[in-house]
Fold:
Amino acid sequence: MLADTPADDPQGEAAPAEEEEEPIVYDGPLPADIAGTPFAIFRAVDIWERLASHPDTRPHVADSGFRAAVERLRALDGQAAAREVMEDPRLAQALMAMQGGKDRLKLREEDMLQAEVGGRMKRRDPVQLPHLERAHGHATAAAAKEAGNAHFKAGEYPDAAACYARALSLAADGGGGAAARVVLHSNHAAAFLKLRRGGEALACCEAALREAEKAAAESAAKCFGDEAASRGRVAVEATTAALATAALAEAVQASEDAAWREAQAEELNAELGARVVAELFE
Structure:
């Protein structure tokens, strides 16, 4: 008499069916030298969701340089893709992670620093996804600002910058007024200066000065009328231009190295911009 259950199942219980993997949907026909290779996964329409869901690659997904590198990789042929992966250790890690095996590539900080210093990999953004995720936990602009101040005092400048950015996003609807946003932009600039990111700091100071002009105009209009507000705006613009020119001249005299001059000019402009903002509200 034949058994009612499979011969390899002595307990009479059917073996659980293996889950079938969902087919990968690509963003178009795969080139011949990409199809069937590990690089094909980067052509998946949901590649960013895949990268964000893997613990090895998730920390990189908010970095502008990593995003640009992945987008380049998506458009390259096989040989060029291999060269691109060799340049950026994060891409090598992503390539291995996306294969779904047990093997994982652990990156060392010195590996990424060497790639940055050698020019093979774009310098990483000072604020990465873990900092942004921690900052996102603050529900109000006031709470995010308070946390940013605490991080700044502790020397945790990436977290401070992320918290100030979070506070600004929560205050984007105008909550707190222009004066409050001036302080947030100024604090944001200070955090970037500590991170030696002069370009980002300068952008923050320019935003602070725009808000300072609004605040000065609003205050002057309330107290003295529109004509006084107009004169106040002109004064702010003239003072800012003069200080920026002086800062640039000082930086040019400091060194013959063009790259160093540019970096110093950015930092000086940022510092002077923050000082102007502080003087406006003393």
Remarks:
- Residues 226-254 form the longest helix (29 residues).
- The chain has a mean pLDDT of 78.
